[in-house]
Every structure is written in C-alpha cells, then in structure tokens.
Design brief:
single chain, 71 residues, mainly beta, three-stranded antiparallel sheet, 34% strand, elongated, binds zinc ion
C-alpha cells in the first residue's frame, strides 16, 4: 500500500503531523500549519503549498494563473 500523499512528516523526527490551520494567501500560495504528533517532539511549523506544474490543463482557466505544463 503506497504511503498517503496527504500525510506530512515532521522534518525533525519524521512522525506524521496533524494539520491545524490552512490559510489561502493567494491563488497560487497557501500556508498550512502542522503539529507533530510525537509527544517527545512537539514541533509546530508552517509549510507552503503552491502549484508547481500542470498535468492536465484547466477547462476553466484563469488569465492570471500560469503554471508550467511539464510531464
Ligand atoms: Zn516531530
């Protein structure tokens, strides 16, 4: 069974983290706050989510959004 892509690991202890907050900054940028679930670690951090490439083009594209089409 492949690892879930929705799981984010703590960069320090590699334990799965819980999403506690998401904030959409712009169309192309979202910040996600994670809390490490390892009680001996306790790391809380913010990660950025941004589209990096298009695999299938949008049928309802926005003129302001340019995401490279790369396989
Ligand atoms: Zn941790």
């Amino acid at each position: 069974m492949p690892k879930s892509s929705n799981k984010t690991q703590c960069p320090h202890c590699e334990t799965d983290c819980k999403t506690v907050k998401t904030k959409q900054i712009s169309r192309m940028y979202r910040e996600v706050t994670y809390v490490c679930q390892n009680p001996k670690c306790g790391h809380i951090f913010v990660a950025s989510v941004t589209p990096v490439r298009t695999l299938a083009p949008s049928a309802a594209p926005c003129d302001d959004v340019r995401i490279p089409v790369l396989a």
